[in-house]
Amino acid sequence: MRNILFLCTGNSARSIMAEAYMNHAGAGRWRAFSAGSTPTGKVNPFALETLIAHDVAPPETPLSKSWGEFAGADAPVMDVIVTVCDNAAGETCPVWPTQKDQTQQKLHWSFPDPAAVEGDDANKRAAFEAVFADIRAAIDAFLSTPDS
Questions:
Q1: 93 an active-site residue?
Q2: Residue at 90 is within a domain
Q3: Total structural domains in the chain?
């Protein structure tokens, strides 16, 4: 089983949805985690609602976590690190633990922040649906490559 870490700034929406969808679609091959550089402390309820609407189980304990939790010596070793927002991609990331002689793959997938959408609940739901569709497409494409 390989590990993948999805990073965002707040770890409240995009990275949470990516973690849940990868655990759903990559079950048995991939174990996904998510974290943020500046976690909000809570998961956006529209992210959880969107996952449930697509029959994707939310993370077992939906928490907004700091990426520091995954940089320690006792953290799971990540095979792939994916930033899912432009802010996190531009930040100085911690050094992630690796296996000896392992090359860690680092990817950047830019998705707009659905949590930043203003307006009524219908507008917010539409934004989360659109971003989830993009996340699902990116993960499905990633999983279809020979190396994954």
A1: yes
A2: yes
A3: 1
With respect to residue 55, please indicate whether it lies within any of the assigned structural domains. Answer: yes
Catalytic choice (5, 13, 85, 131): 85
Q: Per residue in 64-108, pLDDT tens?
A: 888 888 887 788 888 999 989 766 445 554 555 555 566 678 889
Three-state helix/strand/coil letters over 12-38: CCHHHHHHHHHHHHCCCCEEEEEEECC
Annotation says 8 is catalytic? yes
Supply the CATH number for residue 89's domain: 3.40.50.2300
pTM of the model: 0.89
Domain ranges, residue 77? 2-143
Query: Catalytic: 85?
Result: yes
CA dihedral 136, 8, 122, 60 (to 10 degrees): 70
Q: Given the residues 71, 93, 117, 130, select the one marked as catalytic.
A: 93
Q: Which pLDDT does position 15 carry in this prediction?
A: 95
Select which of 8, 78, 88, 139 is catalytic: 8
